[in-house]
Design brief:
Elements: H1 2-17, H2 32-46, H3 50-62, H4 92-105, H5 112-126, H6 146-150, H7 159-168, H8 173-180, E1 187-189, H9 215-221, E2 231-233, H10 245-251, H11 258-265, H12 274-282, H13 284-298
Antiparallel strand pairs: 1-2
Helix pairs in contact: 2-4, 2-5, 3-5, 8-13, 10-12, 12-13
Bound molecules: protoporphyrin IX containing FE.
Protoporphyrin IX containing FE is lined by residues 49, 52-53, 55-56, 59, 88, 90, 153-155, 162, 179-180, 182-183, 185-189, 192, 234, 257, 259.
């Protein structure tokens, strides 16, 4: 009986997962992948950081009610105005440009949620990272969820809170570590980590897990009287290159966000994430393999398929 239940459960998982497919648009929009690749390449040529920003958009989309492009909806009650996204999430204009380019070769066929997934993959690849076949066939949601977006993983969360938030969307501890490796590219604002630089009297380093030799440069980038919007690289060594340097940094106490360093330095990390960080720091191929796996899993969080949702014409508004 137990065996039967397990087999039925596994079959159900296969059915759920197989709703997306790599060749979903092969007849309806055969040029899709080359159009998106071209537009992502153009955007990155203008500003290399855009690769990081596009990758993050897909994460912030998928973690809130699944990968349904709800993040892209305009409006002050939308997800863009939630704390983790406000003055932070970027790349919306690039998604508009990609969507317009896609619409001009195949109209009303490709969802904004799928464009986010392909753009994230291309951003990783064009930054020197691994590639994979993106599963497609998501449809776009009809509503945004601002309170859901306010509950996205925070740089101030403890490791157990982060692990719990990933578990809610079906991602395990290996996925937590592998996906955090996305912080091998991109920037973070001072407001999100400057509490780690000084103690309450404004001197010294209260966060003993931060390599003290890194503090002067971070303090210079984040002066005490500034508004917190200055930025520094999440990977202090190779900010534009998608490699395993982020994990080498963590082993050396050089993670920027507290939520990064906790993967290596917290007590809970000892029997959860620390050994995975160590493995990735010395073996980029294992990191790349696990990252690809985790991206495919994250891209498969509660997609709308079939007759659910719609194919948005303009990614910023639901169709009228
Ligand atoms: C583990 C939980 C995570 C936390 C707490 C977290 C937090 C953050 C924070 C605070 C920033 C800086 C935002 C700002 O400066 O306004 C950031 C940036 C970034 N995050 Fe994460 N993140 C997490 C996981 C992820 C995942 C899973 C991905 C993608 C797979 C990702 C991709 C990125 C990228 C690429 C950037 C740089 C964006 C840019 O430069 O525009 N993060 N993250």
């Amino acid at each position: 009986m137990k065996k039967f239940v397990i087999i039925t459960f596994l079959m159900l998982c296969v059915v759920v997962r197989s709703q997306l497919s790599a060749d979903f648009y092969s007849k309806s929009c055969p040029n899709l992948l080359s159009v998106v690749r071209r537009e992502v390449r153009n955007a990155i040529k203008l500003e290399m950081r855009m690769a990081a920003s596009l990758l993050r958009l897909h994460f912030h989309d998928c973690f809130v009610d699944g990968c349904d492009a709800s993040l892209l909806l305009d409006g002050s009650d939308g997800e863009k105005f939630a704390a983790p996204n406000l003055n932070s999430a970027r790349g919306f204009e690039v998604i508009d440009t990609i969507k317009n380019a896609v619409e001009s070769s195949c109209s009303n066929v490709v969802s904004c949620a799928d464009i986010l997934a392909i753009a994230a993959r291309d951003s990783v690849l064009l930054s020197g990272g691994p590639t994979w076949k993106v599963l497609l066939g998501r449809r776009d949601g009809l509503v945004a969820n601002q309170s859901g977006a306010n509950n996205l993983p925070s740089p101030f969360d403890s490791l157990d809170a982060i692990i719990a938030k990933f578990a809610v969307v079906g991602l395990n501890i290996t996925d937590v570590v592998a996906l955090s490796g996305a912080h091998t590219i991109g920037l973070a604002r001072c407001a999100l980590f400057s509490n780690r630089l000084t103690n309450f009297s404004g001197t010294g380093a209260p966060d003993s897990t931060l390599d003290s030799s890194l503090i002067p440069s971070l303090q210079a980038a984040c002066p005490a009287n500034s508004d917190g919007n200055n930025t520094v690289a999440l990977d202090v060594k190779s900010r534009d290159l998608f490699d395993n340097q982020y994990f080498v940094n963590l082993v050396n106490g050089r993670g920027i966000l507290q939520s990064d360093q906790t993967l290596f330095s917290s007590d809970l990390a000892l029997n959860t994430t620390k050994s995975i960080v160590q493995l990735y720091s010395s073996n980029p191929a294992v990191f790349f393999g696990d990252f690809v796996n985790a991206m495919i899993k994250m891209g498969d969080v509660r997609p709308l398929t079939g007759l659910d949702g719609e194919i948005r014409k303009n990614c910023r508004v639901v169709n009228s």
